[in-house]
């Protein structure tokens, strides 16, 4: 026996296997070449003991390699043939694999809906910075230093290394506690009449609970003109809620206090869960409005003359209304979500429901 015989035999096996059409043909070839009794390769291996020591030294490893390579070739061919079989067996009537796709966060959806509604009412959408100066967040909004009303907004103050910021108190920086500073920024740059909304992220240094977060979103509204009145506000806001909740919904205006408006109002909508009755159909207590029949959704009022002055306007010539609503609060009402913290939990079981 020569080494070339071995190479030839491997060549032969390889050609035969490439031509094999099915598992049956493959099995016949396996018996022919690797069969225990009369397989071609087996027969060669069996000749080894009769060989001289010299011959055995070269032919032994060569035969081992042939056996190993041939076996590998058989298993590859088996895979190829069974794969081909699987391909032929595709069932075109089976339902396709569902590829999971992402979707918008419920807060993003509600914010976009709010934008659409106001855009349709001829409002413009503007934005402002999240890092704000004390001047825009407080002073210009008629909340002077050391005024007790500042306690209404627990503030994250920012440390800064700049000497200028440390010495001039009015220039101290903070994370805005509401979207109202954008009122001033916009009025400084634009002439009335106009109507805008300002969606944006705000921050408060307060303890979290089911209805309070440290980081949340507001949508500010501001309409300024020669004779903008509270009646205009009532119309705009009633129309807004009607479109948002897709039904006629009663609203209630209550006197309230915000330094930057006069008069100041709190706006409530009739509870969407119990329809303003405080009790559910089965007679049980409504937990959403705590049986009051009303849900508090925003602060509002007529722009204070001091605010117009701070923005460089003449308060005797102009009037305007402003409002600020909590986006999470609206989304919670719309989707009946019991806890604000769910929005920021990152829990996919929650997010996937929208
Ligand atoms: C303000 O922030 C005023 N800037 C609103 C305003 C604008 C009044 C213009 C008048 C004119 P207030 O602190 O009440 O007001 O917040 C407004 C809304 O933000 C609340 O009605 C509530 O829905 C939401 N909100 C307030 N604090 C939190 C909080 N910690 N977590 C989640 N939402 C909050």
Keywords:
354 residues; alpha+beta; BirA Bifunctional Protein, domain 2; 2 domains; 7-stranded mixed beta sheet; two-stranded antiparallel ribbon; 9 strands; binds adenosine-5'-[phenylalaninyl-phosphate]
Describe this structure in words.
This protein has 354 residues and is an alpha+beta fold. It has two domains: 86 residues; 246 residues, BirA Bifunctional Protein, domain 2 (2-Layer Sandwich). Helices cover 40% and strands 18% of the residues. It is built from twelve helices and nine strands. Strands 1-4-5-9-8-7-6 form a seven-stranded mixed sheet. It has a two-stranded antiparallel ribbon with strand order 2-3. A hairpin with a 4-residue loop joins strand 6 and strand 7. The longest helix has 36 residues. It is elongated. The two termini are 76 Å apart. The mean pLDDT is 90. The site of adenosine-5'-[phenylalaninyl-phosphate] has 24 residues, from strand 5, strand 8, strand 9 and helix 11.
Please outline what is shown here:
The chain has 354 residues and is an alpha+beta fold. It has 12 helices and 9 strands.
| Major sheet attributes | 7 strands, mixed
**Beta fraction:** 15-25%
Q: What is CATH's topology name of the largest domain?
A: BirA Bifunctional Protein, domain 2
CATH architecture of the largest domain: 2-Layer Sandwich
- Termini separation: 76 Å
Unreliable residue runs: none
Q: Give the tally of β-strands.
A: 9
Helix content: 25-40%
Order of secondary-structure elements: HHHHHEEHHEHEEHEEEHEHH
Mean pLDDT: 90
Characterize the overall form.
elongated
Bound molecules: adenosine-5'-[phenylalaninyl-phosphate]
User: Which strand order spans the largest sheet, edge to edge or round the barrel?
Assistant: 1-4-5-9-8-7-6
User: What structural category characterises the helix and strand content?
Assistant: alpha+beta
Radius of gyration: 39 Å
By DSSP (H or I, 4+ residues per run), the number of helices equals 12
Top CATH class of the largest domain: Alpha Beta
């Amino acid at each position: 026996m020569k080494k070339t015989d071995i190479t030839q035999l491997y060549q032969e096996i390889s050609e035969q296997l490439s031509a094999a059409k099915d598992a049956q043909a493959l099995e016949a070839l396996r018996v022919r070449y690797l069969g225990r009794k009369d397989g071609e390769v087996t027969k060669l291996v069996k000749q080894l003991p009769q060989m001289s020591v010299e011959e055995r030294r070269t032919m032994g490893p060569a035969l081992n390699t042939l056996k190993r390579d041939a076996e590998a070739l058989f298993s590859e061919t088996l895979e190829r043939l069974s794969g081909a079989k699987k391909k032929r067996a595709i069932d075109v009537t089976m339902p396709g694999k569902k590829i999971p796709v992402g979707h918008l966060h419920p807060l993003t959806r509600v914010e976009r809906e709010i934008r659409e509604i106001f855009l349709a009412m001829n409002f413009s959408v503007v934005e402002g910075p999240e890092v704000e100066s004390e001047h825009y967040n407080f002073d210009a909004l008629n909340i002077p230093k050391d005024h007790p009303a500042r306690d209404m907004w627990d503030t994250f103050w920012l440390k800064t290394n700049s000497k200028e910021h440390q010495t001039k108190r009015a220039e101290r920086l903070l994370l805005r506690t509401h979207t109202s500073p954008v009122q001033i920024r916009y009025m400084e740059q634009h002439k009335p009449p106009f109507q805008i909304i300002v969606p944006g992220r705000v921050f408060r240094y307060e303890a979290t609970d089911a209805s309070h977060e440290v980081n949340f979103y507001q949508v500010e509204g501001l309409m300024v003109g020669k004779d903008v009145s509270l009646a205009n506000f009532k119309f705009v806001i009633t129309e807004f809620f009607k479109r948002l909740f897709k039904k006629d919904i009663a609203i209630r205006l209550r006197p309230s206090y915000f330094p930057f408006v006069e008069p100041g109002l709190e706006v409530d909508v009739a509870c969407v869960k119990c329809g303003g009755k405080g009790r559910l159909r089965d007679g049980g207590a409504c937990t959403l409005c705590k049986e009051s029949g009303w849900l508090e959704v925003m602060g509002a009022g007529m722009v204070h003359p001091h605010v117009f002055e701070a923005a460089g306007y003449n308060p005797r010539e102009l009037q305007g209304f402003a409002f600020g609503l909590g986006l999470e609060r609206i989304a919670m009402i719309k989707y009946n979500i019991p806890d604000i913290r769910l929005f920021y939990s990152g829990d996919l079981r929650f997010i996937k429901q929208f």
